[in-house]
Write a structure and sequence with these properties.
By secondary structure, this protein is mainly β. It has three domains: 144 residues, no CATH class; 78 residues, Single Sheet (Resuscitation-promoting factor rpfb fold), CATH 2.20.230; 110 residues, Glucose Permease (Domain IIA), CATH 2.70.70. The protein is built from four helices and 28 strands. The strands form eight sheets. Strands 16, 19, 21, 22, 23, 25, 27 and 28 form an eight-stranded antiparallel β-sheet that branches. A five-stranded mixed β-sheet has the order 1-6-10-13-14, with no helix packed on it. Strand 17 and strand 18 form a beta hairpin. The longest helix is centred in the first third of the chain and has 11 residues.
Amino acid sequence: MKKYIALGAMAFTMIFSISGNKVFAQGDQGVQVLIDEKPVGLVTSRQAAHKALEKFLDFPALNARIDKQEIAFENQVEVKAYKGTGQEVLSEKELYTHLKNLNKKIKVKAKGTWQDQAEKYGLDLKDLLAANEAKLTDPLPEEIFLPTMDIQLKALSKEEVTYQEVVSYQVREVEDENLPQGKREVVQKGQKGQREVKAKVERLNGEKVQHIIESATLLKDPVDEVVHVGTKQGASGSFMVPTQGRLSSPFGPRWGRFHRGIDLACPVGTPVVAADGGTITRARTNAGSYGNYIDVDHGNGYTTRYAHLSQIEVQVGQEVAKGQEIAKSGNTGRSTGPHLHFEVCNGGKLEDPLGHISL
């Protein structure tokens, strides 16, 4: 990988003295860091200046192989002779923190007086007091805010990178008339593919601002996931009222006999629908007391019967959907008047239809 770092013009002489735990510039020269000709901090050595500035340019690693990288400040960055005395010298770490927060109001630990802190950070005392909404006569707290500087330090990285990424698979749906309607069955699991990408990336202060893909090479083809979707009409597991009518006879004992279903009184020719989806297993005419009738097997243990019909509109073996018209009501067979006789059977045992439908 080729990496180029530009830091700007620098001068590197420093004379300093130590008083207590503080370091102060002394004599007529020091190492001052300037951004766009504005001083931002005094450091102890050429090495400290280099390390703080280079650390600012040390962007987080991308999840990619970097083939080429060029990093440079977009500002004018200088380290040159400082003439003056009394200003406190920042450590490499302090300078780096200061560079990262030039346009941010940050909190730092403080000792001494307001004047001491202004000198330490090379600040105007009035600006420092304003940032903390304080007066010179106020005691210095343990932590203070540093005022922001009207400087936007910007470092731009231009990188040529190579990385691998996943290629998503497609989901392909196929209608299957052998599956119940709405049922989905995965017949082939999808597999993700992979491709190698070469791209140009630009990052400003570590944040990505541009990403241009130059080329992409497929390393592994994705495999479609194939899902069969059922279209076969089947039971929903609940019943609907099979016709519009009035309950004229309930389920149970009637006239010394057992009434196997319910009767819904309605005019001859009233539409009759399948109470649930299923398969027509009987479609008989003139069948004794039932007259014309239809049986539907719902495929879940339940069957239903529709009797005394005037007209049958389906055939044995036909698949029907819930709510689909299958006949017209009538008055055939042993009947005391126009109505639909409706039965519900579960596993061969009759059940009261009113336990499944609400009139």
